[in-house]
């Protein structure tokens, strides 16, 4: 009962979107690709529609959703007291993988979109399917990642189908997503602005445009301002352990696990033939690899960690969560 429409060459055709538009305008859910991960969309102005997102994902109600719109102009219809720096970010990074937290207008969105907060996270996704859909539906679309809560975010339509089969009516299949991890979340309601969730757009990228920004992880003694960050995320079924990317150390760990009669998978930038399973580690393939582990008989997953180049901050953040910060020893 879950239909999949393969978009492919029909990306600019009207028929590709007519069913999705119809469903979204009638309180239904549609999964669609963005450049980061697949989103599970609903009309952000309709509380019954939004409630279906929480039910489909099994998502805690105190975790607010990101609202997707087709342009800066559309975004500005829904927010107030927008600081200049937010406008500069919109001009520099939209469409793109940057979610801006701003003050929403009173009664703009269904209350369950923002989990009762007076602020809202908004972005314009940089994906032709998402943009075509948003332009046609002419509604702000609340869309968290289209996975079951706690599972790795979906980077392919088949991941969405795995989690949402029989639960949602329609998936638009736009192929594998380019970035593979969720957008950077930047809180514009404080000064300097704070990165609540690292993503492909880095602190350095942002600072070139708006000057100093802070990382929430660097701020001591602060209650988590991004409610979602307190939940464990992205975890496959077998436990994930972090390990320093040192060949001898990793090989010793593999042998140690195998000696107990257990199967081990290694996620790394270099191959480990000793391991029962090997998956190449990159931001683009991280979630796909974690999901592939679930389809094996692996007992334990080792993820190798190298001193992180700046672009890797976001991937490391997701990997640490998948491992629940456990190191192999
Ligand atoms: O790349 C993405 O952002 C994907 C695609 C589908 O666009 N969406 C996504 O949404 O990752 P979601 O709902 O899985 O993540 C939303 C994040 C959570 O960490 C949530 O706590 C935070 O954004 N967030 C949303 N609204 C917020 C608000 N008003 N204040 C603080 N954090 C907020
Ligand atoms: Mg998510």
From TrEMBL:
Its EC number is 2.7.7.87. GO terms for molecular function: ATP binding; double-stranded RNA binding; L-threonylcarbamoyladenylate synthase; tRNA binding. Required for the formation of a threonylcarbamoyl group on adenosine at position 37 (t(6)A37) in tRNAs that read codons beginning with adenine. Pfam families: Sua5_C (PF03481), Sua5_yciO_yrdC (PF01300). The keyword ATP-binding applies. Residues 14-201 form the YrdC-like domain. The keyword Cytoplasm applies. SUPFAM superfamilies: YrdC/RibB (SSF55821). GO terms for cellular component: cytoplasm. L-threonine binds at residues 36, 68, 123, 183. Belongs to the SUA5 family. It catalyses: L-threonine + hydrogencarbonate + ATP = L-threonylcarbamoyladenylate + diphosphate + H2O. Keywords: ATP-binding, Cytoplasm, Nucleotide-binding, Nucleotidyltransferase, Transferase, tRNA processing. GO terms for biological process: regulation of translational fidelity; tRNA processing. This is Threonylcarbamoyl-AMP synthase. It is an enzyme of class 2 (transferase). ATP binds at residues 59, 63, 119, 143, 145, 153, 197, 234.
């Amino acid at each position: 009962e879950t239909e999949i429409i393969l978009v492919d060459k029909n990306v600019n055709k009207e028929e590709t979107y007519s069913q999705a538009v119809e469903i979204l305008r009638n309180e239904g859910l549609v999964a669609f690709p963005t450049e980061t991960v697949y989103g599970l969309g609903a009309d952000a102005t309709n509380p019954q529609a939004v409630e279906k997102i929480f039910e489909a994902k099994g998502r805690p109600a105190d975790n607010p959703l990101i609202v997707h719109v087709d342009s800066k102009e559309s975004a500005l219809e829904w927010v107030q007291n927008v600081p200049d720096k937010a406008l500069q970010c919109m001009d520099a990074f939209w469409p793109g993988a940057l979610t801006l937290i701003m003050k929403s207008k009173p009664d703009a969105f269904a209350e369950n979109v923002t989990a009762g907060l007076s602020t809202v996270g908004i972005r314009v996704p940089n994906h032709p399917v998402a943009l075509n859909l948003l332009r046609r539906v002419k509604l702000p679309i609340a869309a968290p990642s289209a996975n079951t809560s706690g599972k790795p975010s979906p980077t392919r339509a088949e991941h969405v189908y795995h989690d949402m089969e029989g639960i949602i009516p329609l998936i638009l299949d736009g192929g594998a997503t380019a970035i593979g991890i969720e957008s950077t979340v930047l809180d514009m309601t404080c000064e300097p602005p704070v990165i609540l969730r690292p993503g492909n757009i880095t602190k350095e990228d942002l600072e070139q445009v708006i000057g100093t920004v802070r990382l929430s992880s660097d701020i001591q003694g602060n209650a988590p301002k991004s409610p979602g960050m307190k939940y464990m995320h992205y975890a496959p079924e077998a436990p994930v352990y972090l390990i320093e990317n040192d060949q001898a150390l990793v090989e010793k760990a593999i042998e140690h696990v195998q000696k107990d009669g257990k199967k081990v998978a290694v996620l790394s930038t270099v191959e480990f033939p000793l391991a029962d399973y090997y998956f190449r580690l990159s931001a683009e393939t991280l979630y796909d690899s974690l999901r592939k582990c679930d389809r094996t008989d692996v007992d334990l997953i080792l993820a190798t960690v190298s001193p992180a180049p700046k672009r890797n901050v976001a991937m490391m953040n997701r990997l640490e969560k998948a491992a629940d910060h456990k190191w192999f020893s």
